[in-house]
Amino acid sequence: MIRVSVVGAKGRMGSHVVKAVEDAEDTQLALALDAGDDLTQITPENTDVVVEFTVPAVSLNNVLTLIKQGVNVVVGTTGWTDEKLDQVRKALIEVRETHGREQSVFIAPNFAISAVLADVFARIAAPYFESAEVIELHHPDKVDAPSGTAIHTAHAIGEARAAAGMEAMPDNTQTDGGSRGQVIDGVHVHAVRLRGLNAHEEVLLGNAGEQLVIRADSFDRVSFMPGVLLAVRKIASHAYPGLTVGLDNFLAL
């Protein structure tokens, strides 16, 4: 049995993780902690993997604390920047060099299999289209914009276009008043926050006379749970030391 502790256990996502861990045949809930609880309760003696689903403002400190505690971590909180990821890498190197421990941290921009596949498909398609834009749509309670998934997708498109030696996308807009969205690696990303939505992403790719639309819809947070459990199992296997970003690393793509 994989012993799993959940940080952010009373949150919208964390409560679903608790249920998924309790329902799975190969996992058992060790500790369920939330805001204000002492993370040093979590140790290798009681936990194999921690699932962290909180908010961007506290997630980095939570992860760094859990690394010091000597446990492996699966992170679903978004809002990660290159600088924050570098701090996690540095902390993992320090524990390896100081204590000889090989620990694992996995961070997922999205746990929905549909969203992960959409990201992969967008990367494959990007070199074949002159234009590409990303639209992400979420409920208005989401605290970050654009979403971590959309940022990850934009990076994937930008990297694929750069590797193919493509020129900048055509755009003759002179003044947009902010309506053209955030530009990430040359890709315009637009964020919609609307009551009634859950988590949705569209990638629009266009050439003269044609368009390809890749869309992933998660209508309920339960859709993320198979991806969470997959990550827990992979990290518990000790096959992924250090920092791993993206659920696509665990899929046979």
UniProtKB/TrEMBL annotation:
Q: What chemistry does it catalyse, as a reaction equation?
A: (S)-2,3,4,5-tetrahydrodipicolinate + NAD(+) + H2O = (2S,4S)-4-hydroxy-2,3,4,5-tetrahydrodipicolinate + NADH + H(+); (S)-2,3,4,5-tetrahydrodipicolinate + NADP(+) + H2O = (2S,4S)-4-hydroxy-2,3,4,5-tetrahydrodipicolinate + NADPH + H(+)
Pathway info: Amino-acid biosynthesis; L-lysine biosynthesis via DAP pathway; (S)-tetrahydrodipicolinate from L-aspartate: step 4/4
Sites where the protein binds NAD(+) = 8-13, 34, 76-78, 108-111
> Where does the Dihydrodipicolinate reductase C-terminal domain lie?
120-251
User: Cross-referenced CDD domains, in alphabetical order?
Assistant: DHDPR_N
Listed under GO biological process in this entry are: diaminopimelate biosynthetic process; lysine biosynthetic process via diaminopimelate
Q: Which domain of life is it from?
A: Bacteria
Gene Ontology cellular component terms for the protein in this record: cytosol
Q: What is its EC number?
A: 1.17.1.8
Entry's PROSITE patterns?
Answer: DAPB (PS01298)
GO molecular function terms attached to this record: 4-hydroxy-tetrahydrodipicolinate reductase; NAD binding; NADP binding; oxidoreductase activity, acting on CH or CH2 groups, NAD or NADP as acceptor
Tell me which Pfam families the record gives: DapB_C, DapB_N
Q: Where in the cell is it found?
A: Cytoplasm
The enzyme's main class, written as a single word, is oxidoreductase
Q: Where does (S)-2,3,4,5-tetrahydrodipicolinate bind?
A: 139, 148-149
Q: What keywords sit in the KW lines?
A: Amino-acid biosynthesis, Cytoplasm, Diaminopimelate biosynthesis, Lysine biosynthesis, NAD, NADP, Oxidoreductase
Query: Which family does the entry's similarity section mention?
Result: Belongs to the DapB family.
Q: What does this protein do?
A: Catalyzes the conversion of 4-hydroxy-tetrahydrodipicolinate (HTPA) to tetrahydrodipicolinate.
Q: What is this protein called?
A: 4-hydroxy-tetrahydrodipicolinate reductase
